[in-house]
C-alpha cells in the first residue's frame, strides 16, 4: 500500500502514545512454593505459616504456598529445595542444626555452603527443664549431682543429633567431670510427659516448647542456652550467666536453591527484612511466644557457616553417632 | 453448668453446625478412601482453618477426625481395605462377614459401636479430663514397654492356621519395625540407602498392600469366581439380638480406647488392635473369630472412635498431643493463639464445651448416616469383582502416593501386596504382622529408653514400677493360661483316677 505522509504522521503519533506492554514477571506469574521439611504442626511449619503472610504483604504480586515434605529428619525437604529450579518460585524452610549435622551422618544431595540464604526468623534456645517438685533445685545442683554420679542422671532430649542433644554435649564439654545418661525421645511431646512424670531427671527442649508448661507452673527451668534472657522467661538465667559458656538452640529460616536470580533474591530479602520488623508480625510472634531473631541475606549466611564450622569441629573431636 | 449449656448452645449457630456436619461427611469420605485418612486430610485443611474462629475450626477438625475413624471401617468391611490405619482390626472380621453376605450387619454394628465409643469418650473427657491427663503422667518408658508387650502377647491367637505361623508373622512384623533410623543410637538400619526408608516402613502402604492388594491378586487368580449366593442378610442391619451380643465388646473397646488414646503418642490404631485382642480374650464366642465375628468388629470400632476423645484429653488439658492427628489440631489452635492447658479449663470453658458438643454431634451424625447408608454401602459388596477391584487398585495407588508424594511408598505397597498373597497361600494371617509393625518400634524404643534410665540397676528399676509389673504380670498370666489349665485338668484327672 502507498505510504502517505498522513499515514506516517499517524504512525508516529501512535508510537508515541503507546505505553510499553507490561509482561507478567516474578513474583506474579504463579504461587511461590515453600517446602517445609516436617509434618504440619511442628515448630518449622509454624514459623513458615506465621511469617509468610507478612512477607506476602511486603512483596506485591507474590503468593506463598506451604507444602510439607517430611522425611529423614528434614533431609528430604531440604534436598527438594536444593535441587529445585532456581527460578524464584521455590523456597524452603530449614532448621539448624539438622541442616549441618545430617551431612555428617550420611551422604546428602545438598551442600550447606551453596544454598541461597534468604532470612532467619526464629532462634529458639534450648532449656533445661525439671518438674516443679523435682529434688533438683538449680543448675549448680544438677551439675553437682552429675559430677558425683557420672552417667547416673537421665537427660531426655528430642533425639540423637537434635539441638537438645547438642546442648547436652556442649555442657558436658564445658563443665569438667560432668556426664549424663542420654535418653532420646520421639519429639518434644513424649519428652515433656516423661519429665512431668518424673521418668527422666531432666529434659532439654526449646524455650518455645517449654514456655506454656512453665507459665502453668508445671515445669521449672534450671537454665536456658540463649545469648541473653528471654522476654517470655524473665526469671530464668542463661547458662552463660551461671558460669557455663554454652549458647545453643534451634534456628529456623528460609532458603532458596543455589543460583537464584539476583534481582529476585534482593527483592525477597528486602521483603523479609520488612516483614521481620513489621509490628503486626511482631505482635503475632509475641502472641505465639515465638523467639524472633531476624537475620537476612549475608548476615544469615555467615551465621550458618559459623555454626557449621563449630559443629564440624565438635563432630571431629567426638562424633555423637557411629558411622 | 452454665459453661456446659453455653457450649451446647454453640451448636445452635448455623455456621458451626454446618461446619460440624461438613466435617463429619468429609471425614467419613476420606476415612473410607484407602491411604488418605483423617490425619492427612487435617494436614491439608490446616491453612483453611486459620481463617475461621477457633471454635468453628475445632468443631470441624474434631468432626473430620471422628468421621474418618468410622469411615475407615466401610472399606475395611466391604473390600478388605482399611481406609484408615485405625480400621485394620475391623478388616479382619468385617471382611469375612461381608464374604458371608453379612455386610449390612457389619456396617451397622460398626456405626453403632463407633458412635457409642465416641460418645463414651466425650463424656469421659467432660468429666475427667484433668484427672485422666494426670494419670497419663504415670506412664513412662517402662510402662509403655509393658503395654507393648501386653499388646503383642495375644498375637499367637489371632487368625491364621496355627499359633506358630502367627508368631512367625508377628516376628516378621517386629523385624520390619526395626527398619529406619534407630531412636537411641541414630544409626540407619536396613535402609540400603533408600531415602524413603529412613523413617521406617510406613504402615499405610503396608496395610493397603497386605489387605487390599493381596485380596485383589487372590481374586484375580481365581478364574472361576462363582456368583456368591447372595443372602438377603446382605442388607440386613443389626437388630437387638446382635446389640446384646456385642454389648460387652463395645464397653471393653470404649474403655480401652479412651485410655489408650489418652496416652501421648498412642492413638486409634493401637487402641483398635489391643481392643481386638481383648475382645477375643473375653468373648463367649471365641470360635467365631477368624470367620467373621460380629464382636470382632464391634470392639475395635468402639475403641478407635473412643481413642479420639481419649487423645483430646492430653491435647486440651496439657497441650501435649495424644496422637498424630491431635498434634495437627493442636497446631491449628496454637496458630489461632489458643494455648491449651489446665488454665484453658478455667479461662475458656465455653471453648472446651463447644468442642465436646461438636464431637458429640459428629458421633450422632455419622451414626444416623451409617445406619441409613449401611444398606446402600452393603450393595457395593455385590458389585462384580471385575469392576470393583480395578477401582480399588487405582484408589490404593493414589492413596499410597498421596500423603508424601512418594513413589517409594507405592512400590512398598506393591511389595506387600505380593507378601500378602504369599501369606494367604500358606495359611498366614496379616494381623500379627500388622501388630508387630505397629507395636514393634514402641516395644524396642521404650525398652532401650528404660535401660538408659535405669542403667545397671534395671532389674530393681523395673521391680519398682507397679503399673509396668501389673501389665507384665497380666501378659505372663495370659500366655501361661493354656498350660496352667491343661495342668489343672491333668491333676484333676489323676486325682479322680486315684479315687476310683
UniProtKB/TrEMBL annotation, chain A:
Q: Which domain of life is it from?
A: Bacteria
Q: Where is the signal peptide?
A: 1-23
Q: Write one Pfam family the protein is assigned to.
A: TctC
Family annotation (InterPro entries): BUG (IPR005064), Bug_dom1 (IPR042100)
Instruction: Give the UniProt keywords, A-Z.
Output: Signal
- Which family does the record claim for this protein? Belongs to the UPF0065 (bug) family.
This protein's name: Recombinase RecA
Q: Which species is this UniProt entry from?
A: Teichococcus rhizosphaerae
TrEMBL record, chain B:
Which protein, by its recorded name, is this?
Answer: C4-dicarboxylate ABC transporter permease
Report the source organism: Teichococcus rhizosphaerae
Membrane spanning stretches: 12-36, 42-65, 105-132, 144-160, 167-187, 193-214, 250-276, 316-338, 350-374, 386-403, 410-428, 467-485
Keywords in alphabetical order: Membrane, Transmembrane, Transmembrane helix
Please report the stretch or stretches of sequence annotated as the DUF112 domain. 17-434
Pfam families noted in UniProt:
TctA
Amino acid at each position: 500500500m502507498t505510504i502517505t505522509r498522513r499515514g506516517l504522521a499517524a504512525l508516529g503519533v501512535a508510537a508515541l502514545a503507546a505505553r510499553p506492554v507490561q509482561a507478567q514477571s516474578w513474583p506474579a506469574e504463579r504461587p511461590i512454593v515453600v517446602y517445609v521439611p516436617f509434618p504440619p504442626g511442628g515448630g518449622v511449619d509454624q514459623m513458615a505459616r506465621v511469617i509468610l503472610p507478612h512477607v506476602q504483604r511486603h512483596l506485591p504480586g507474590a503468593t506463598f504456598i506451604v507444602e510439607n515434605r517430611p522425611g529423614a529428619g528434614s533431609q528430604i525437604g531440604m534436598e527438594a529445595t536444593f535441587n529445585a529450579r532456581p527460578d524464584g518460585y521455590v523456597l524452603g524452610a530449614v532448621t539448624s542444626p539438622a541442616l549441618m549435622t545430617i551431612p555428617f551422618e550420611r551422604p546428602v544431595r545438598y551442600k550447606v555452603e551453596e544454598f541461597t540464604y534468604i532470612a532467619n526468623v526464629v532462634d529458639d534456645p534450648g532449656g533445661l527443664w525439671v518438674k516443679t517438685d523435682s529434688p533438683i533445685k538449680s543448675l549448680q545442683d544438677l551439675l553437682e549431682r552429675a559430677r558425683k554420679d557420672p552417667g547416673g542422671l537421665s537427660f531426655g532430649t528430642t533425639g540423637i543429633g537434635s539441638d537438645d542433644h547438642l546442648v547436652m554435649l556442649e555442657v558436658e564439654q564445658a563443665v569438667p567431670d560432668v556426664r549424663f545418661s542420654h535418653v532420646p525421645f520421639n519429639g518434644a511431646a513424649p519428652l515433656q510427659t516423661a519429665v512431668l512424670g518424673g521418668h527422666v531427671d531432666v529434659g532439654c527442649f526449646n524455650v518455645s516448647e517449654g514456655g506454656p508448661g512453665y507459665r502453668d507452673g508445671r515445669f521449672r527451668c534450671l537454665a536456658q542456652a540463649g545469648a541473653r534472657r528471654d522476654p517470655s522467661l524473665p526469671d530464668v538465667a542463661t547458662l552463660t550467666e551461671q558460669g557455663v559458656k554454652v549458647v545453643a538452640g534451634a534456628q529456623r529460616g528460609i532458603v532458596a536453591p543455589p543460583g537464584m536470580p539476583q534481582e529476585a533474591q534482593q527483592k525477597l530479602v528486602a521483603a523479609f527484612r520488612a516483614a521481620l520488623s513489621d509490628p503486626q508480625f511482631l505482635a503475632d510472634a509475641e502472641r505465639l511466644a515465638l523467639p524472633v531473631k531476624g537475620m537476612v541475606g549475608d548476615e544469615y549466611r555467615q551465621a550458618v557457616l559459623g555454626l557449621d564450622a563449630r559443629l564440624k569441629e565438635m563432630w571431629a573431636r567426638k562424633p555423637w553417632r557411629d558411622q | 453448668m452454665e459453661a456446659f449449656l453455653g457450649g451446647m448452645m454453640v451448636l445452635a449457630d448455623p455456621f458451626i453446625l454446618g461446619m460440624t456436619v461438613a466435617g463429619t461427611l468429609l471425614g467419613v469420605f476420606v476415612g473410607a478412601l484407602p491411604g488418605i485418612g483423617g490425619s492427612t486430610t487435617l494436614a491439608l485443611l490446616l491453612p483453611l482453618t486459620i481463617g475461621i474462629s477457633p471454635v468453628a475450626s475445632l468443631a470441624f477438625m474434631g468432626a473430620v477426625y471422628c468421621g474418618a475413624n468410622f469411615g475407615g471401617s466401610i472399606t475395611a468391611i466391604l473390600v478388605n481395605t482399611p481406609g484408615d490405619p485405625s480400621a485394620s482390626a475391623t478388616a479382619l472380621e468385617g471382611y469375612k462377614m461381608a464374604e458371608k453376605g453379612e455386610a449390612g450387619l457389619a456396617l451397622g454394628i460398626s456405626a453403632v459401636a463407633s458412635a457409642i465409643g465416641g460418645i463414651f469418650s466425650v463424656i469421659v473427657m467432660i468429666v475427667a479430663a484433668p484427672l485422666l491427663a494426670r494419670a497419663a503422667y504415670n506412664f513412662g518408658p517402662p510402662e509403655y514397654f509393658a503395654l507393648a508387650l501386653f499388646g503383642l502377647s495375644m498375637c499367637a491367637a489371632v487368625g491364621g492356621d496355627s499359633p506358630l505361623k502367627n508368631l512367625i508373622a508377628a516376628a516378621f512384623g517386629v523385624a520390619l519395625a526395626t527398619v529406619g533410623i534407630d531412636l537411641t543410637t541414630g544409626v540407619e538400619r536396613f535402609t540400603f540407602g533408600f531415602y524413603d526408608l529412613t523413617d521406617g516402613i510406613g504402615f499405610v502402604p503396608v496395610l493397603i498392600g497386605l489387605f487390599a492388594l493381596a485380596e485383589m491378586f487372590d481374586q484375580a487368580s481365581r478364574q472361576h469366581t462363582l456368583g456368591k449366593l447372595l443372602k438377603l442378610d446382605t442388607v440386613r442391619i443389626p437388630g437387638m439380638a446382635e446389640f446384646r451380643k456385642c454389648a460387652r465388646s463395645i464397653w471393653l473397646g470404649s474403655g480401652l480406647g479412651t485410655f489408650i488414646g489418652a496416652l501421648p503418642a498412642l492413638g486409634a490404631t493401637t487402641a483398635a488392635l489391643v481392643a481386638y485382642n481383648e475382645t477375643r480374650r473375653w468373648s463367649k464366642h471365641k470360635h467365631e473369630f477368624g470367620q467373621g465375628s460380629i464382636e470382632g468388629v464391634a470392639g475395635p470400632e468402639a475403641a478407635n472412635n473412643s481413642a479420639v476423645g481419649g487423645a483430646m484429653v492430653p491435647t486440651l488439658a496439657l497441650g501435649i498431643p495424644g496422637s498424630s492427628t491431635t498434634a495437627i489440631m493442636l497446631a491449628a489452635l496454637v496458630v489461632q493463639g489458643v494455648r491449651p492447658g489446665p488454665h484453658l479449663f478455667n479461662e475458656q470453658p465455653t471453648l472446651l464445651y463447644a468442642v465436646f458438643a461438636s464431637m458429640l454431634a459428629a458421633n450422632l451424625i455419622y451414626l444416623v448416616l451409617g445406619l441409613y447408608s449401611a444398606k446402600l454401602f452393603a450393595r457395593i459388596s455385590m458389585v462384580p469383582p471385575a469392576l470393583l477391584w480395578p477401582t480399588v487398585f487405582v484408589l490404593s495407588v493414589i492413596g499410597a502416593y498421596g500423603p508424601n508424594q512418594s513413589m517409594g511408598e507405592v512400590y512398598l505397597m506393591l511389595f506387600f501386596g505380593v507378601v500378602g498373597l504369599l501369606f494367604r497361600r500358606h495359611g498366614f494371617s496379616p494381623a500379627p504382622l500388622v501388630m508387630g509393625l505397629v507395636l514393634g518400634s514402641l516395644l524396642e524404643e521404650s525398652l532401650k529408653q528404660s535401660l538408659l534410665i535405669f542403667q545397671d540397676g534395671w532389674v530393681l528399676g523395673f521391680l519398682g514400677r507397679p503399673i509396668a509389673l501389673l501389665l507384665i504380670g497380666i501378659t505372663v498370666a495370659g500366655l501361661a493360661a493354656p498350660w496352667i489349665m491343661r495342668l489343672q485338668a491333668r491333676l484333676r484327672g489323676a486325682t479322680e483316677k486315684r479315687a476310683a
